[in-house]
Backbone:
């Protein structure tokens, strides 16, 4: 069984570097239409058009956030209520166990656990940290002012993919050979 | 993320220029920077020495005593937490409201939040005197089955401030990741590049990464917004939960939050004006940004002024002799000077921002913002010290003043804050590269860049 | 950007003019009249039961005078912030000023009848500043002055907003009625006038400050003083925010109802509705925060002069108010908070309308709970049944006020363009950029 990144390394592909955002979007649309697999696209800023084409739908991170928040609320209230019950002392005239002061505790921990869970979710779902870095197709200018489009090709459609990239104004087209980084 | 691409008021620059302008701020520090840094070190040294002296000699070297048991340390605590609020407001709240002028300034504001909260976090430690037992406040299982009192606002404070520091730090870091990647990619091969590779978590700007990043960012903003309100509300409840006249009043929570945003914005303005000049990024942090902050500052100043007025009115209306006494004492008693500085700097001087000339002049902005910072410190002093010195029973009344040790710690805290901030500005980008790029029109074939 | 194709300037104006109603349908008029009649019946029912009539009038009037200004508050906030999403709502919000005459009627009746219900009107000695503050002449004058000041500024703001629209040529041609002629008097240079009106609106927008003061005065005078021993510094803020919150909810409902009947769905589409829902969620949090700040502070310090008011309304098991207070909390906090977390609710019109109605009910009940226990003499041990008559009367009265408002609102919308065509930001949102 080959692991995901091992599988990736043996794929063939083409990397097109673009200077203009609209060119990238049109190229992606064309590639999807002609059935060429768009492996990934690299942009220095989030692009809603590219996201819509390639990764529609909402991120599932929010489910983790919800789970974290609920556990924070329950945990906070539980901790406060339980620890007050350990000694059964009336302090400052307040009832030993009352939900009103403990709502603040619960609220803060809701936010804390929710945020922690969100961070965890972000790392897990986007497969940060470091696992995929640097991907074969990643070039340093993609965090500056260039856009990258990685098309996965088979022997059959490589020429078609190359001409597609060039037609849409790719500054350069690079071959990403199979087998090895 | 902000959805403000192509807003003319933000200027129009190509991506490469933004990269260059912002990353060039990370270059070798100049003479002025080094001098200011050295001065901050000096202040921190004074603060550290004062604190060490306090620990060695005892809490009595501070002016706190009976009846004023909470003095400058608590004033500084509330002051610094308040300053921290602008960053989260600008980062999270203005993000959710899709306000366009947020993009170039939120990084510096967030940095000042983190470091302000880090500075604030020192003060409970200093204030309790016996620093070595502060861990009692943390709920951990121990041999004597002792637990902190969760009914106490001071415990809520611990939770709120720790949550705030943690969540702000996470939010801050997540926002930094694409920028660390940009710095990594532009760095020459070497140790620095390896460190940046590590810190950037392997960010590549791939679509999978952006998708979850954007989703998480909205969630962080959504979580941070109620947090920012709750933290200063909890801090205000340190006072409002008591029965002390001048402290026990229902308006404290929103009043403190408004005041925190006021002082935070003032500090951010004071930081940004020299920063944009020193880093030569006046084309990215424009008058539009500064003026927008000034307008928001004006709004919060009006809210704070309203709160002052309502407190006085209700004290008169209620007929409670203790409430009335404290509200006569504040403007006319031993701390009258502090009171009138507070009113002038927080409620009166910011009204000058109604005048366009004032809020669009760099000096006008800086002076008013600096005075607001002064006024907000005195507001906390006024609330805390005057109420404690003038409670119910006349025979318990007493005065308080800062001792030299407390002054040392106060200046040390400013040194600490600016030290951390200046350090940050040279290590990581002070302006968000990715978001400023996003606020620019995308590079299009028709050559609109 | 909203869905729908972008149009040229002229097309935009034409589309707005086409969407603007020409007359009020018999059906809507019928509903409005029906509600108004129900309102009268409600007041009658209330007075038949004793002081409940005054409770109903107070609740309905305090809500309506706030709602009359709430819409202009939103328009002013849009003006100050330059926000783009809410522009199509502007005129619908500003039209809320039609509630002013209704609110005024309520206030006049309340002022005239003050001796009958004001607990302090016959008091011999009131502690503290109340000795001076709560005296009849001063009280009446204060209420009228604060209404005059803030409503005056509201009307000035709306005047300039309308005038700005009437600088567009086709608008004055279509709307030739008395209102159109009033606001478009003396327009010589339309483009310059438009800019001038915009500048005036920006100048007036900070008048929001007077609203804070007005709402505080009204909150203290109309509601808080009903139990003269009690006070809370945040009460004015709480009053204000409740009105803004319910005002936003009503704006959402109006947008949804008119969206269908007038065909302004292309302006107020799913995305914009969702934006309003998000802001509604934000206000839910702020309103709850204001409530909680008061409740927690009073609960914690446990001072008898403060807790009596709270205990009577929320905790005392021998009185029927506590169950109502749970419903209130559910209505203005729990239900909107949970419901508005879901994208589905924010985007689906009927669901959003339902949540908005619940919000209005919540704020209504909050006012009722503040006012009724002070004026009604409810014996300990009475069940919740004793609330039926006062509550019904209050609901009918409020519905009546809203019904009257509905009649005036629909009439108003036939006199002015339904969208702010003179607003630059609105134009840029929907029309082509000027070359």
Residues:
């Amino acid at each position: 069984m080959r692991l995901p990144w091992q599988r990736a390394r043996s794929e063939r592909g083409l990397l097109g570097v673009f200077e203009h955002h609209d060119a990238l979007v049109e190229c992606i649309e064309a590639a999807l239409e002609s059935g060429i697999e768009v492996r990934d696209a690299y942009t220095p800023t989030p692009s809603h058009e590219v996201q819509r084409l390639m990764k529609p739908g909402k991120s599932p991170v929010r489910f983790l956030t919800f789970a974290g928040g609920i556990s924070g609320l329950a945990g906070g209230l539980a901790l406060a209520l339980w620890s007050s019950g350990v000694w059964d002392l009336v302090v400052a005239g307040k009832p030993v166990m009352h939900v009103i002061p403990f709502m603040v505790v619960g609220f803060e921990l809701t936010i804390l656990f929710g945020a922690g869970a969100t961070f965890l979710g972000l790392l897990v779902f986007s497969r940060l940290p470091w696992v995929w870095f640097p991907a074969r197709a990643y070039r340093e200018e993609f965090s500056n002012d260039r856009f990258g489009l990685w098309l996965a090709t088979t022997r059959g459609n490589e020429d078609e993919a190359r001409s597609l990239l060039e037609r849409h104004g790719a500054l350069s087209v690079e071959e990403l050979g199979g087998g090895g980084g | 993320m902000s959805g403000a691409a192509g807003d003319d008021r933000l200027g129009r620059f190509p991506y490469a220029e933004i990269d260059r302008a912002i990353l060039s701020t990370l270059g070798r520090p100049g003479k002025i920077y080094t001098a200011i840094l050295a001065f901050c070190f000096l202040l921190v040294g004074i603060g550290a020495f004062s604190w060490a002296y306090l620990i060695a000699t005892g809490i009595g070297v501070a002016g706190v005593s009976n009846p004023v048991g909470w003095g400058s340390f608590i004033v500084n605590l509330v002051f610094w937490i308040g300053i921290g609020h602008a960053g989260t407001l600008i980062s999270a709240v203005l993000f959710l409201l899709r306000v366009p002028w947020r993009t170039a300034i939120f990084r510096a504001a967030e940095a000042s939040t983190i470091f302000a909260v880090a500075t604030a976090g020192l003060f409970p430690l200093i204030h309790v005197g016996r620093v070595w037992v502060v861990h009692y406040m943390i709920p951990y299982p121990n041999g004597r089955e002792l637990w902190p009192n969760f009914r106490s606002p001071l415990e809520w404070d611990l939770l709120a401030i720790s949550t705030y520091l943690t969540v702000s730090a996470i939010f801050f870091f997540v926002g930094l990741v694409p920028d660390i990647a940009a710095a990594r990619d532009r760095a020459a091969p070497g140790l620095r590049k390896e460190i940046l590779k590590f810190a950037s978590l392997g960010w590549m700007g791939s679509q999978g990464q952006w998708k979850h990043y954007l989703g998480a960012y909205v969630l962080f903003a959504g979580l941070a917004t109620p947090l920012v309100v709750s933290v200063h509300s909890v801090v205000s409840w340190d006072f409002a939960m008591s029965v002390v006249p001048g402290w026990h009043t229902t308006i404290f929570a929103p009043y403190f939050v408004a005041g925190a945003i006021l002082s935070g914005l003032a500090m951010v303005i004071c930081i940004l004006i020299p920063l944009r000049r020193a880093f030569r990024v006046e084309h990215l942090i424009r008058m539009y940004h500064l003026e927008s902050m000034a307008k928001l500052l004006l709004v919060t100043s009006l809210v704070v002024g309203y709160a002052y007025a309502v407190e006085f009115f209700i004290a008169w209306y209620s007929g409670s002799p203790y409430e009335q006494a404290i509200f006569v004492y504040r403007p006319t008693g031993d701390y009258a000077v502090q009171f009138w500085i507070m009113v002038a700097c927080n409620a009166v001087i910011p009204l000058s921002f109604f005048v366009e000339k004032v809020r669009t002049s760099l000096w006008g902005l800086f002076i008013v913002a600096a005075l607001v910072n002064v006024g907000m410190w005195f507001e906390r002093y006024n609330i805390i010290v005057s109420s404690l010195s003038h409670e119910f029973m006349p025979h318990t009344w007493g005065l308080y003043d800062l001792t030299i040790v407390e002054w040392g710690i106060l200046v040390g805290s400013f040194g600490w804050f600016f030290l951390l901030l200046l350090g940050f500005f040279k290590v990581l980008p002070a302006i968000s590269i990715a978001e400023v790029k996003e606020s620019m029109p995308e590079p299009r074939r028709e050559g609109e860049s | 950007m909203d869905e729908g194709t972008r149009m040229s300037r002229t097309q935009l104006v034409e589309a707005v003019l086409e969407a603007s109603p020409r007359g009020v349908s018999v059906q809507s008029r019928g509903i409005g009249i029906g509600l108004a009649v129900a309102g009268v019946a409600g007041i009658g029912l209330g007075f038949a039961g004793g002081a409940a009539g005054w409770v109903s009038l107070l609740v309905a009037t305090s809500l309506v005078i706030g709602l009359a200004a709430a819409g202009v508050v939103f328009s002013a906030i849009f003006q100050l912030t330059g926000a783009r999403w809410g522009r199509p709502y502007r005129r619908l919000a500003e039209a809320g000023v039609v509630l002013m005459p209704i609110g005024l009627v309520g206030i006049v009746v309340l002022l005239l009848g003050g001796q009958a219900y004001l607990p302090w009107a016959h008091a011999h000695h009131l502690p503290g500043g109340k000795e001076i503050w709560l005296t009849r002449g001063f009280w009446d004058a204060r209420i009228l002055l604060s209404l005059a000041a803030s409503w005056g500024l509201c009307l000035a703001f709306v005047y300039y907003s309308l005038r700005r629209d009437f600088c567009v040529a086709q608008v004055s041609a279509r709307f030739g009625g008395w209102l159109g002629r009033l606001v478009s008097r003396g327009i010589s240079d339309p483009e310059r006038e438009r800019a001038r009106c915009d500048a005036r609106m920006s100048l007036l927008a900070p008048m929001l400050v007077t609203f804070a003061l007005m709402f505080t005065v009204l909150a203290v005078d109309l509601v808080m003083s009903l139990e003269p021993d009690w006070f809370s510094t945040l009460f004015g803020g709480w009053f204000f925010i409740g009105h803004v919150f319910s005002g936003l909810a009503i704006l959402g409902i109006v947008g949804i109802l008119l969206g269908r009947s007038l065909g302004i769905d292309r302006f107020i589409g799913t995305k914009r509705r969702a934006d309003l829902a998000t802001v509604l969620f934000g206000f839910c949090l702020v309103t709850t925060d204001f409530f909680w700040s008061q409740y927690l502070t009073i609960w914690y310090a446990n001072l008898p002069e403060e807790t009596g008011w709270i205990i009577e309304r929320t905790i005392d098991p021998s009185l029927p108010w506590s169950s109502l207070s749970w419903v209130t909390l559910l209505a203005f906090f729990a239900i909107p908070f949970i419901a508005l977390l879901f994208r589905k609710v924010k985007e689906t019109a009927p669901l959003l309308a339902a949540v908005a109605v619940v919000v209005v009910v919540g704020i209504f009940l909050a006012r009722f709970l503040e006012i009724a226990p002070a004026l009604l003499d409810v014996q300990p041990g009475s069940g919740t049944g004793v609330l039926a008559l006062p509550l019904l009367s209050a609901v009918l009265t409020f519905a009546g006020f809203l019904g009257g408002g509905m009649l005036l609102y629909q009439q108003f919308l036939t006199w002015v363009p339904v969208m702010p065509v003179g607003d630059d930001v609105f134009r840029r949102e929907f029309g082509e950029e000027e070359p």
Summary: The CA atoms of residues 175 and 217 of chain B lie 8 Å apart. Chain B touches chain C at residues 96-99, 225-226, 229, 233, 237, 240-243, 248-254, 295, 302-303, 306-307, 310-311, 313-314, 316-320, 324, 354 (CB under 8 Å). Chain B has one domain: 8-137+148-439. The domain at 8-137+148-439 of chain B is CATH 1.20.1630.10 (Formate dehydrogenase/DMSO reductase fold).
